[in-house]
Amino acid sequence: MSHTGKKAPLSVELKFDKLSLNEPKIPLDENEISPSELPVELTNRIALDCEMVGVGTKGRDHMLARVSLVNEHGGVLVDCYVKPQQPVRDYRTEISGIRPEHIADGTEFQIIRELVRKVIHGRILVGHALKNDLMVLNLRHPKYNVRDTARYRPIAKKAHAFGTPSLKSIAQTFLGEDIQDGEHDSVEDARAAMKIYLLFEKEWEKSPHVRRKVSAALREAT
């Protein structure tokens, strides 16, 4: 991916490990699904991003093809291709970056779903348009622990965006980074979402929106 050469704000940049992106691991063995065996620190804040391919009669339905999780320092916790659960009609390669050989021997869906469930359980989940990612994973996450950069209005306002801002546009605005220049990279996108969250973290965590969700969860638990 190309970059403008601009650096992310120092306060965010210092928090991120300078880790190179390796090829996604394929397949992931079912014996490696314990979060205690993850390659980097499992922090309280985790960013998720998925790449999808098209299935169904016209290839318009979404199916998980790659899943990436990074910690709050940008370290890669999970990055795996996922074996197709049904015939692929459209690989959407120009956007997803997914090719047939990537997922032919990928990790079984149930294995990767269980790993993601364990990793994000009880943690703040960061991402952009997380509803879509959780949907293809067939997972739910407590609303009070979701930090979606597509839905936090101060981000859109400061980016002068009408409607829902794209991750590409807010990464350029707040980080000075060009992402999604052609084929998408789920690790790069997860890292961008995490960096943006960290920029807004203080005001976000103090917002009435978050406090209402936490209060509602506490009431339900009692």
TrEMBL record:
Entries under SMART domains matching the protein: EXOIII
Pfam families: RNase_T
Cellular component GO terms held in the UniProt record: nucleus
Ranges for domain Exonuclease: 44-206
CDD domains: REX4_like
Subcellular localization: Nucleus
A single MF term (Gene Ontology): nucleic acid binding
Key words of the record: Exonuclease, Hydrolase, Nuclease, Nucleus
BP-aspect Gene Ontology terms: rRNA processing
Family: Belongs to the REXO4 family.
Classification via PANTHER family: RNA EXONUCLEASE 4, RNA EXONUCLEASE REXO1 / RECO3 FAMILY MEMBER-RELATED
UniProt-recorded name of the protein: RNA exonuclease 4
